[in-house]
Design goal:
heterodimer, A: 586 residues, alpha/beta, Ubiquitin-like (UB roll), Alpha-Beta Plaits, Rossmann fold, five-stranded mixed β-sheet, 18 helices, 21 strands, B: 117 residues, mainly alpha, de novo design (two linked rop proteins), 5 helices, binds iron/sulfur cluster, binds FE2/S2 (inorganic) cluster
């Protein structure tokens, strides 16, 4: 322990603690911009500077450990002046069009400028450092707003391990952050996880806009616009309207969709259940016929693209089932619309609301269509949907909590008395167990073999062995780029035989997806925990797990349209394929 | 280090040792600018006060060159100079300290053209 003085208060803290954390321990928040704990502690922005007695220069508190006896001032005149000057410098090179910025209300840079009440004397704000706009199907980058904090670079390199974004300082006076110079994101090794978008303190990195397209379609009389929401949306959209993290607002969500003018709305549970059944049969087939194992899940487009880019020798392993929202899009267009709405597939426009930026990329994959009609036409992130709700003047907080009726909800909802399962692996293995042993699966006990459950930033690998049909199956759940890299490493090593692996690109899974609301005041694992609770509150812990093979909507869809898993119809509408993708990361 | 910047450094030694060296405004501004420019190759671009501060200081000096400097220009010049003390490495810190010495010794030279009365 070391004894130090902060703003006149004596404090005892552990040796090695940074000044920033020491101050936080007595309730003093020193402002930061470039800092992300354990991921980006590089001291670039110099906003966090403090005065230390005996030092002639100001020191950055985020990466300077305390020394016994230090006397620290966190808000002396010198310190405040310096922060103001540094903010002026950053702002002088940032283009301000805040009212149309994709970062909307959650810009950390704006907040800090406001907090320090920055005035401009000689240099007005707003001359962009660079004005390139780099396009990508999932995420895009507007360099005119970059403040060179390097957060995104740290995340893309260390957390995601895709190494797409780089700090380019060949010319030290004019550095910039970008993917390979001259290329769009799709030509690089980007997996569109959107983790960089979430950490960018400005609107430089953002999800590629689909709002425009959706709003145009809502006005088009000739289109039936159907919206399907991922279950995690109900547990997070409230955050955008001032509800605490972890508040479920499912009724308000559906009512706002109705007010926005969508013709039909539902969640993606039908698609999920069809995928679960399909993958359980695929697992059975592969095991019985001695085909390629382990089977990889295909629901996460980031994880699929990761394999296509970096591990093409494993493409055979990926389940050929389309991901739930794509599959459900195909079912809505090709079966529900013609049969129940009397509409041709081409007259229907399907919008998915997802916690994800990669699904924007996913719908651009050329193979995801049937007879020339795209399965899904647009993907909105939670943030985008919230923006549309605000723009339409809908008072979200005042909306009713009662679920509004919709033909499609009636049609597609899972048998009422059940809760949906967050965990894809358990659902698939549960269905597999029902298929083989005609009984439910016991609770799976996992062992964490990489990362940990608190520091989700690194991602996690959980493994377990389950016995189904007197056969031992080794399974793994892999979330996050670094964890995926590690898992492929293990697979290449071949020390252990696996049968089933769930891959997801985002550390913490979809609840921490790149399209989720941005929470800066809570650690990530806490956000995920609260959102998980919100999912279950809605689903009611007491209820039994949903069983896809008992879901009436699924049974009706089989009966009237898809027949059974791996039927000819199923293969036509609900399966896809994967190809090796070239890329340049320089 | 380029020869040019070496010469500038020599000049600084002189300034620092001999606090009485007085230049006229034009010489001072031009020499300051060439000193700052000579430091560009050293600047790594990582931290804000140095990367963006030096460029802005040069722009402020330009105002002296074209006669548009005001008292605010001088105040900002001082502030940005002092702000170099929050730089990340010795490149920015040293530029800052050299500039501080110059400002201290030649404040009047820069003050004369912008004073209000
Ligand atoms: S989306 Fe993911 S992979 Fe792509 S640049 Fe951002 S962090 Fe890197
Ligand atoms: S793009 Fe955003 S996160 Fe990346 S360096 Fe620029 S401001 Fe920082
Ligand atoms: S937060 Fe410490 S230097 Fe940026």
């Amino acid at each position: 322990m070391a004894s130090i003085t902060i703003n006149g208060t004596k404090v005892k803290v552990k040796n090695g603690t940074t000044i920033l954390n020491a101050a936080a321990s007595i309730g003093i928040k020193i402002p930061t911009l470039c800092f992300i704990e354990e991921i980006n502690e590089i001291g670039f922005c110099r906003i966090c500077v403090v005065e230390v007695e005996g030092e002639q220069d100001l020191v950055s508190s985020c990466n300077t450990p305390i020394k016994s006896g230090m006397v620290i001032e966190t808000d002396s005149k010198k310190v405040i002046k310096s922060r103001e000057n540094t903010l002026q410098l950053l702002a002088a090179n940032h283009r301000f069009d805040c009212w149309r910025c994709p970062k909307d209300g959650s810009c950390e840079f704006y907040d800090i400028l406001k907090e320090y009440d920055i005035l401009f004397e000689e240099f007005g704000p707003g001359i962009a450092r660079k004005d390139d706009l780099i396009y990508g199907t999932g995420i895009s980058q507007d360099l005119s707003k970059c403040i060179l904090c390097k957060r995104c670079v740290a995340v893309c390199n260390n957390v995601v391990t895709a190494k797409v974004l780089k700090f380019r300082d060949d010319d030290g006076m004019n550095p910039f952050v970008s993917p390979t110079v001259g290329l769009e994101f799709d030509q690089t090794g980007c997996i569109f996880c959107g983790q960089c978008v979430k950490v960018c303190p400005t609107g430089t990195l953002f999800e590629t806009d689909h709002i425009q397209m959706v709003e145009d379609m809502l006005k088009d009389e000739n289109k039936t616009v159907v919206v399907q929401i991922a279950p995690s949306i109900q547990a997070s959209i409230g955050e955008e309207f001032g509800f605490d993290v972890g508040t479920s607002t499912v009724g308000k969500l559906y009512n706002s969709l109705r007010l926005l003018g969508f013709n039909e709305f539902t969640d993606t549970s039908l698609g999920e259940d069809l995928v679960i059944l399909e993958e359980s049969v695929e697992l059975k087939n592969r095991i019985e016929e001695g085909k390629t194992l382990p089977l990889f899940t295909s629901s996460c487009p980031s994880a699929v693209r990761y394999a296509e880019l970096y591990q093409p020798e494993y493409l055979e392993n990926i389940s050929t089932s389309k991901s739930p929202h794509i599959l459900q899009g195909a079912v809505i267009k090709n079966y529900y619309a013609p049969k129940y709405l009397n509409k041709k597939p081409s007259e229907v426009f399907v919008v998915s609301v997802m916690p994800c930026t990669a699904k924007k990329y996913e719908i651009s994959r050329p193979e995801l269509e049937v007879d020339g009609v795209r399965d899904v036409d647009a993907v909105l992130t939670v943030r985008e949907l919230a923006k549309m709700i605000k723009r339409k003047g809908i008072n979200f907080k005042k909306l009713s909590d009662d679920l509004p009726g919709s033909n499609l909800i009636e049609f597609s909802k899972a048998t009422n008395e059940s809760k949906s399962c967050l965990n894809e692996t358990e659902s698939i293995l549960g269905a597999y167990s029902n298929l083989i042993d005609k009984k439910d699966l016991e609770t799976i006990k996992y062992k964490v073999t990489y990362g940990d459950t608190v520091k989700l930033s690194e991602g996690i690998i959980k493994e377990a062995t389950v016995i189904i049909g007197s056969k031992k199956l080794n399974i793994a759940i892999v979330h996050g780029g670094a964890a995926m890299k590690e898992m492929y490493h293990r697979l290449n090593n071949g020390k252990k035989i696996y049968h089933f692996i769930e891959f997801m690109g985002c550390p913490g899974g979809c609840l921490n997806g790149g399209g989720m609301p941005i929470e800066v005041d809570l650690p990530m694992h806490e956000v995920i925990k609260r959102r998980t609770i919100a999912m279950y509150v809605q689903n009611n812990e007491e209820l039994p797990l949903r069983k896809p093979h008992e879901n009436e909507a699924v049974l009706k869809t089989y009966e009237e349209f898809l027949k059974s898993p791996f039927s000819e119809e199923m293969l036509k509408y609900c399966h896809t394929h994967f190809t090796r993708k070239e890329y340049r990361n320089e | 280090m380029t020869t040019e910047s070496f010469e500038v450094n020599k000049l600084f030694e002189k300034w620092i040792q001999d606090g009485n060296t007085k230049l006229d405004e034009k010489d001072l501004v031009i020499q300051l600018k060439s000193y700052l420019e000579s430091q560009h190759p050293e600047i790594c671009g990582k931290c804000t006060p140095c990367r963006d501060g030096v460029v802005k200081i040069e722009k402020l000096l330009d105002k002296y060159v074209d006669g548009t400097a005001t008292l605010k220009t001088l105040t900002e010049l001082e502030e940005l100079t002092y702000n170099l003390r929050s730089s990340r490495c010795s490149v920015g810190l040293d530029i800052g300290k050299n500039m501080e010495v110059i400002l201290e010794n030649n404040y009047n030279v820069l003050y004369q053209p912008v004073k209000k009365y």
